[in-house]
Write a structure and sequence with these properties.
Number of helices: 11
CATH superfamily: Aldolase class I
CATH topology: TIM Barrel
CATH class: Alpha Beta
Structural class: alpha/beta
Distance between the termini: 31 Å
Helix content: 40-55%
Strand order of the largest sheet: 7-6-5-4-3-2-1-8
Order of helices and strands: HHEHEHEHEHHEHEHEHEH
Largest sheet: 8 strands, parallel
Strand content: 5-15%
């Protein structure tokens, strides 16, 4: 279900956020007890929603190949595991990742638009997107211009997202808000509404380069923006919390929050992702614990 470019006008306002209420509600999600059968189902679901990611200045072809190998061989001693949703790399490694993942169900995502700062001209940002898409990217993760957002130039942010959406063609667009730089939950809600209106297929919390990255209160506010858009239009938008989610237990709490805020339809990698580099290993360790009643050492799992 692909969205059209800039399908909706720039929102003139956004609802105010009850910060106390958001924090109270998210604390309830983390207090839930998850029984074994549900835990195993949830862990496999989390695994299918992960975007395995390497976005470092020292990335090499060998590292990208290893990441793609891991995406296909999460734990060969335990057959039948779900595949991760995608591998996320810089644009110059997209072609290599596509080659390594050929014939699999794992997609290739690419960051673009002067990631992670977003400080560049629109021309260069669109060239960045074109490079990724022409190399075969299935998804593009862009960053918004936070400086222009803080200046109150919401039309600029909206127009830039809409232009990138058009440049993506058939590739799905994830719009990174970099919530750690937005400052308040009201601003998170405003940025979410702008991104959705401008054509985002997903809204995403963070680049993973700024702290705090993904948090449950921030994610809940973004989920509520998605819910309100769905109630108004009947159109689904995806969500991707990224950065800081490294433990299985926390990931399962996120799934509870998604289900109770948006419904079961969003409990699918088409509509929900985790941006993570270390979460997969913890999920694998927990799956093996449930299967064997013993923890395996982290040494049994590759770092990348």
């Amino acid at each position: 279900m692909l969205r059209k470019s800039a399908a909706y006008p720039l929102p003139t306002s956004s609802p105010t956020v009850d910060q106390v209420g958001v924090i109270e509600r998210t604390s309830r999600f983390t207090a839930r007890s998850i029984k074994k059968e549900s835990k195993v189902q949830g862990l496999n679901m989390v695994l299918s929603m992960i975007d395995l990611t390497t976005l470092e200045g020292m990335d090499t072809e060998g590292k990208v190949k290893q990441l793609c190998y891991k995406a296909q061989h999460l734990h060969d001693a335990y057959p039948g595991l779900n595949s991760v949703a995608a591998v996320c790399v810089y644009p110059n490694y997209v072609a290599l990742a596509k080659k390594e993942l050929k014939g699999t169900t794992t997609g290739v995502a690419s960051v673009a638009t002067a990631f992670p700062s977003g400080n560049s001209s629109l021309k260069l940002k669109l060239e960045d997107v074109k490079m990724a898409v022409d190399s075969g990217a299935d998804e593009v993760d862009m960053v918004i211009s936070r400086g222009r957002f803080h200046q109150g130039d919401y039309a600029f942010v909206y127009d830039e997202i809409a232009s990138v959406k058009t440049a993506c063609g058939k590739a799905r667009l994830k719009v990174i808000l970099e919530t750690g730089e937005l400052g308040t939950l009201d601003k998170v809600r405003r940025a979410s509404d702008i991104a959705i209106a401008a054509g985002a297929d997903f809204i995403k919390t963070s680049t993973g380069k700024i702290q705090p990255a993904a948090t449950m209160p921030v994610t809940l506010v973004m989920l509520e923006a998605i819910r309100d858009h769905y109630f108004k239009t009947g159109e689904m938008v995806g969500m991707k919390p990224a950065g800081g989610i490294s433990k299985s237990k926390l990931a399962l709490h996120y799934l509870i929050m998604v289900k109770e805020t948006l419904g079961e339809a969003w409990l699918d990698p088409t509509w929900f992702r985790f941006g993570a580099s270390s979460l997969a290993n913890d999920v694998l360790m927990q799956i093996m614990k449930q299967a064997t009643s013993n923890y395996q050492s982290a040494d049994y799992f590759s770092i990348d």
